[in-house]
Amino acid sequence: MSHIPIEVQLSSLPTNPGVYQFYDVEDKILYVGKAKNLKKRVSSYFNKTHEQGKTRVLVKKIRSIKHIVVPTESDALLLENNLIKKYRPRYNVLLKDDKTFPWICIKNEKFPRIFPTRKFIKDGSEYFGPYTSMKTIHTLLDLIKSVYPLRTCNYDLAHDKVAAGKYKVCLEYHLGNCKGPCEGYQTEEEYNRQIQEIREIIKGNFKSSLHYFKSRMKLLAQEMKFEEAQLIKDKIEVLENYQVKTTIVNPKINNVDVFTIISDEAFAYVNFLQLSHGSIIRSHTLEIKKKLDETDEDLLQLAIIEIRQRFNSHSKEIYVPFEVTLESHLKVVVPKLGDKKKILELSERNAKFFRQDRFKQIKIIDPDRHTNRIMGQMKMDLRLSMEPRHIECFDNSNIQGSNPVAACVVFKDGKPSKKEYRHYNIKTVEGPDDFASMEEVVFRRYKRLLEEDQSLPQLIVIDGGKGQLSSALKSLDALGLRRKIAIIGIAKRLEEIYFPEDPIPLYLDKKSESLKIIQQLRNEAHRFGITFHRNKRSKAAINSELESIEGIGNKTVEELLKNYKSVKRIKEASLENLAQTIGMSKAKKIYETFH
User: Which stretches make up the GIY-YIG domain (predicted)?
Assistant: First the structure.
């Protein structure tokens, strides 16, 4: 990565939330930061002058940028915290209090207490979070306490101690905040039912709670108690923006390696996420150049071994998108749903983003490699004998049978060559006959190229299905070009691609670059044809308005439009001025028609 210029690395960054890491020339980590928009934030280091000397020195040392894309801003905040703790980069302010984010704990005990904590103790208690804001926790706990009376004391409420009358109810009981399980006034079964409902609220299922708050807010507003209503409105906002789960930190997923693979014809990209103590501490994507037609299974298997050796990973559990064969002591899991599936999806997203970044960088640094890859891809996808470096696409345009025209657009090396686009007026066909029009245009185009000894395309794309393709083939037969140029038709509805003498269409993958280029060709031909057709139609409408005047012919109309540019100006012209252009007798006829 370090050999790619910083400007190129910046141009390929995504605009998603995530965490960025700066590395120096020796590939040592300098700085970790979070961003709502990675491209905007990271670019800001390089496109403005920094007041702080420390930041200026940091920017000078940066040689490469790595990033991890995450679903939300709060995920970015948590991940940034994990990575700073793990790597302690030189230019990050060291976290003096060793900052930890708060959790909500449901204590593992009889009549469980619920409270916020920053300590994660493995004693069987349930922990929800972590949360990036204490405000969210307090709002949630306030909501819970307003609906469910819970104990706050730390007594050991074992059955025998309660039965022996060891404890007495406190002030919380008399205030109605607790139902007094310490004196046996509330059963464990009823208390646990409450805890189950509270679990659902913490998980984000608080439809009924929101409904209760909203009706309460309206009631207070009606009673003119606006300050109290505003307090409840604030609570509603916190709950509505409440992020139920974070993918970045999950105490249930501990010391696991996650691997996913994205591949195309030439390369495979394997992303590795390392989770330690429930937190992501590393993300790395490996680019593998394919030598033969290796399967994703083979490549992933090899990549797992190589990456685990490189990063000296000893995790005994591995998450992968499909079954792979690894050492017997490793537990291989293929997640289907839930938190494990989410973490796998996050890894896959990072592999996809890495692939996109590489493509963008290659396009800037080595445009030929990018073009060669696409041309090779099209040759394979469309079963061609040679790369389609020169492609031509035809489209007919006629609206309700008027002014039939056609367009031919030309692409060289996968890009439009606009100076070679051509328009055609249909000459030999009466009325709206798309098939005959296509036959005429294809014949005229390639007859001319042959006569002028110009280079022929490697591929012709016909906008239309089997009928249009057959019409174009007749012209190629007539010119003796049938097997010399590859030709396909693309039907609009389902993007079906038809080949000569093959009744079964080809359906390319919707994400395929070959399909994208064919669609771009088709859309460009359509746009070019429609523009020409509209211009011709509007000219025809103008001409017909003038030609409908008795005694005024085509040549007179041309002469008038040459001088006055529009019918509006002709209408406004004086009789003397018109007479100077076309003579008095014709000028009178036009002047009297419009006045």
Answer: 15-93
Tokens of 279: 């937190």
Q: Which fold has domain 386-535?
A: Nucleotidyltransferase; domain 5 (3.30.420)
Same fold for the domain at 256-364 and the one at 386-535? no
Q: In what order do the strands lie in the sheet with 29-35?
A: 29-35, 18-23, 64-69
572-589 pLDDT, tens digit per residue, is: 788 888 777 778 887 787
Q: Kindly state the average pLDDT of the residues 524-552.
A: 65
Q: Are 6 and 23 in contact (CB under 8 A)?
A: no
Q: DSSP secondary structure string, 85-100?
A: HHH--TTSPP-TT---
pLDDT score for 253: 73
CA–CA distance, 345 with 247 (Å, rounded to integer) = 10
Measured distance CA(319)–CA(446) in Å, rounded: 57
Which residues, in sequence order, are CB contacts of 47 under 8 Å at separation 6+?
none
Which token pair is 590? 């036009």
The number of beta carbons lying within 10 Å of the beta carbon of residue 477 is: 10
Map residue 439 onto helix, strand or coil: helix
Question: How many degrees, rounded to 5, is the angle at CA 566 between CA 561 and CA 587?
Answer: 60
CATH number of 256-364: 3.30.70
Query: Prior bond to 130 cis, omega within 30?
Result: yes
Q: Is 426 helix (H, G, I), strand (E, B) or coil?
A: coil
The answer to whether 281 and 274 are in contact (CB under 8 A) is yes
Q: What is the dihedral of CA 294, 299, 305, 311, to 10 degrees?
A: 140
Q: For 129, left (φ over 0), alpha (ψ -120 to 50), or beta?
A: left
| Domain 6-70+80-91 in this protein, CATH class | alpha beta
Q: Indicate the burial class of 141 (C-beta count within 10 angstroms; 0-12, 13-18, 19 or more).
A: middle
Q: Show me where the domains of the chain are located.
A: 6-70+80-91, 103-246, 256-364, 386-535, 549-594
* pLDDT tens per residue across span 256-311: 899 999 987 778 899 998 887 777 878 888 988 888 778 888 889 889 989 988 88
The yes-or-no verdict on residue 208 having pLDDT over 70 is no
The dihedral through the CA atoms of 271, 274, 278, 279 has a sign that is negative
